[in-house]
TrEMBL record:
The name this protein goes by in its record: Nuclear transcription factor Y subunit B-5
Family (UniProt): Belongs to the NFYB/HAP3 subunit family.
Gene3D superfamilies given in the database record: Histone, subunit A
Keyword field: Activator, DNA-binding, Nucleus, Transcription, Transcription regulation
Length: 160
């Protein structure tokens, strides 16, 4: 896997390259004409609460359980490992889509951007399936909106 996807070997999450928020007690020092932040302040700026970074473990466990036989058990360690992996994967794909939007001077990441990012990152097979799902989702949502916003709001049954 490492040879085909060398970018996937990096264990450092992409979001650690970004400076999230700032503190009122911002520590800076002048060093040879450069502004240098304290290492502690840099770490504080980059830290994100774990619950904000990870998908809820109950949801991850439920998804894992859905694919397993009914009598299968999943250890806490397995759930936590999967939680880290899927959360990192989502951050990775979303970061790529966000970069595309930024270059195109757009503020909103949409489903097409996610499909593009997945294909761009080498997940072509998944991107194709996701694109099919996205198109079907849009059709269903369009039908739902047409049924609701037709004459007189929601369609009523002949009995009412």
């Amino acid at each position: 896997m490492g040879e085909k996807y060398p970018w996937f070997q990096n264990p450092i999450p992409r979001f650690q390259n970004y400076n999230f928020g700032s503190s009122s007690s911002h520590h800076q020092h002048q060093h040879h004409g450069l502004v240098v932040e304290d290492q502690q302040q840099q770490e504080n700026n980059m830290m994100i609460k774990e619950q904000d970074r990870l998908l809820p473990i109950a949801n991850v466990g439920r998804i894992m359980k859905n694919i397993l036989p009914p009598n299968a058990k999943i250890s806490k360690e397995a759930k936590e490992t999967m939680q880290e992996c899927v959360s990192e994967f989502i951050s990775f794909v979303t970061g790529e889509a966000s970069d595309k939007c930024h270059k195109e001077k757009r503020k909103t990441v949409n489903g097409d951007d996610i499909c593009w990012a997945m294909a761009n990152l080498g997940f072509d097979v998944y991107a194709e399936q996701l694109k099919k799902y996205l198109n079907r989702y849009r059709v269903v949502e369009g039908e739902r909106a047409n049924n609701y916003h037709g004459k007189g709001g929601p369609k009523s049954s002949p009995d009412t």
